[in-house]
């Protein structure tokens, strides 16, 4: 049986329990050997709110430290120049045994936008996509599946997840407003945010 590796990329700014719930559900539902978290590098077209890539890496590292089937990679942080998902998957495949299958974990919006991604057919041919979707969002993803035809039906999979109305944007706002984020962000990450005074002037 082929090895199955989950790949979870994102800015994780900050990482929160929604990310961890999705990763754990994907690991279990798709019998993944482990889930590889890949924090993105700093990109000129997306604001990182003055949080550099190594700080975001450290937050992920702290968040997943107690989970034996979660691991983290520097692959995008160490790459120079523009970074595309297809390049990351290509490198991972080069370094892995030939029978390894990769499952890229993404949210509804990302999978719905997949037809606009660079080299999207090459990407979908090289890995599976696990779409963490909620019941009301399924049609968005089905349009993407239809766009890719047989390839989409074979490679795009649905993962139902709890309806957690939580996002990094919401959490940054709570921190700036000096509101509690307990139970929404792992405690070690909260401690790190406090220590480094991230996202606001003071707690």
Q: Outline of this structure?
A:
The protein is built from 10 helices and 6 strands; from the N terminus they run βαβαβααβααβααβαα. It is of the alpha/beta class and 203 residues long.
Would you kindly provide a written description of the structure presented here, covering whatever features stand out?
- The chain is of the alpha/beta class and 203 residues long.
- The protein contains 10 helices and 6 strands, in the order βαβαβααβααβααβαα.
- It has helices spanning 17-29, 53-64, 75-78, 85-95, 108-112, 120-126, 138-148, 150-155, 168-176, 187-196, and strands at 4-10, 34-39, 70-72, 101-107, 128-133, 156-160.
- The protein has a 6-stranded parallel sheet with strand order 3-2-1-4-5-6, sandwiched between helices.
- α2 (53-64) packs antiparallel against α10 (187-196) and α4 (85-95) runs parallel beside α6 (120-126).
- The longest helix is centred in the first third of the chain and has 13 residues, at 17-29.
- 33% of the residues are buried.
- The model has no long low-confidence stretch (mean pLDDT 90).
